[in-house]
Amino acid sequence: MPGQALLYLYRPAVLHRDLQNRLARRILSDAGYPADGGCGRCVEACPMHLEPLYLYLYVQKNRIEDLEAAHVMDCIECGACSYICPGRLHLTHSFKVGKQKVKEAAAKAKAAAEAAKAAEEAKKEA
To answer: Which of 37, 57, 66, 114 has its CA 20 to 30 A from that of 25?
Structure first.
């Protein structure tokens, strides 16, 4: 008898929590965020103590400066965050893409600086 009473007491709490999770996911997806509710499991799993969900959002929104500030280059791409993510986000792949974008932006900035330096030297010679 006590087992059934606990079952009936427990079930509404589970249904209520499930409803809250679904509502939160719907609100986040309508706002343009991933279906993950921000549970924080990926942060706990990260051996480098990064915030994978923010890195993922920065890659999706193409925010290169924020990626650098969030230390995307420190990610060792171990896959722990992707493994534990209940939203099944492709976190590790997005970090690889983000690292490539950061490298491309740095190369572009370096090339622009070298071109400006070469143009300045050409002006001095003329």
So the answer is: 66
